[in-house]
Amino acid sequence: MTPARLGVILLGPPGAGKGSEAELIVERYGIPHISTGDMLRQQIRSGTELGRLAARFIEKGLLVPDKVVVDMVSDRLGWSDCENGFLLDGFPRSVGQAEALHASGHTVTDVILLDVGDELIVRRITSRRSCPACGRVYNVVTLPSRDGVHCDSCQDVELIVRADDGEATIRNRLREYQAMTAPLVEWYGARGLLKRVNGEGTVDEVFVRILEVISVGGSTEE
Ligand code: AMP
User: Which of 9, 33, 135, 220 has its Cα between 20 and 30 A from that of 43?
Assistant: First the structure.
C-alpha cells in the first residue's frame, strides 16, 4: 500500500521530545525532517546575515520574527524531496506562522501535540547535550553518547549544553511557548487536525502512540 502524502507538524513545548520523535517518523515514512531550530543553528554556524539576526533572538529564548522563519520554511518546502510529504519540527510556532503555512497551500494532514508536564520538561532540557559540530542531540540520562562525552558521529568533538538550554533562557522559551505557540492547539483543533499524544515515557513508547494516531496508520512491526 502506498501511504497517502503526509504533512506532519510536531507541536509541543521545548523538551517535549519533538526532535527525537521526528527522527523516527521521517525514517518510517521517508519524508524530510524540517526543523527550523536546526536550520537557524546551521545559519548561525555558517555566519550568515540571517544567522546573526536569528542568534540575537535565540540567545534570549525569544522567537525569531515570523517573516524570517516563514520565508525560510517556504523555500524549503519547495524542494523536490517534499513532493511526497514533509515533517515540520518547531514550525509553526505562532498563529501568524500557521496562517502563512495555510495560505501557502501545503497540505497539513496531522498536527501531533506532544503533551509533557512542566517538571519533566525542565528535567529533560537540563540533561540535554548537543554536538556543536553536527547538532546531534543526546541526553545524559535517557540517550547518552557511547562514551558520554563525545559525539558518536563526529568522534573527537565534545558534547556541550546548548547555549539556549541554560536555566534563564529556558524560562523565556517556556513563556514564549505559552504566549505564542500554545494558541495553535486551539487553532488546529478547530480545523480538526490536532492529535494529542502523551509525550511522557521513552522515545519508543511515545513513537508507538504516534503511529496509532497518524493519518496513514502504521504498525510497530518492521
Ligand atoms: P528549537 O530547536 O526548535 O527549540 O528552536 C530553538 C530556537 O530557535 C527557539 O527558541 C527560537 O528562538 C528559534 N526558532 C525555532 N523555530 C522557530 C520558529 N518557527 N519561529 C520562531 N523562532 C523559532
Answer: 9
The total of other beta-carbon atoms located within 10 Å of residue 134's CB is 14
Reply yes or no on whether 18 is catalytic: yes
Q: What is the DSSP-derived secondary structure letter of residue 64?
A: P
What is the model's pTM?
A: 0.88
Other CB atoms closer than 10 Å to residue 104's CB: what's the count? Answer: 12
Q: How far is the CA of 99 from the centre of ligand 1 (A)?
A: 17
176 and 183 in contact (C-beta within 8 Å)? no
> SS3 of 198, please?
strand
Which is the closest atom of ligand 1 to the Cα of 58?
A: 12
Q: How far, in Å, CA of 209 to CA of 108, rounded?
A: 19
Model confidence band, residue 1 (pLDDT cutoffs 50, 70, 90): very low
Q: Enter the C-alpha cell of residue 85.
A: 510529504
Is 191 annotated in the active site? no
Q: What is the pLDDT of residues 94-143, one digit of tens each?
A: 999 999 999 999 999 999 999 998 888 888 888 999 999 998 889 898 88
**In the chain, what's the furthest Cα-to-Cα distance?**
49
Enumerate the β-bridge partners of residue 110.
8
Ligand 1, closest atom to CA 14?
4
Using the Cα atoms of residue 20, residue 21, residue 24 and residue 29 in order, give the sign of their dihedral: negative
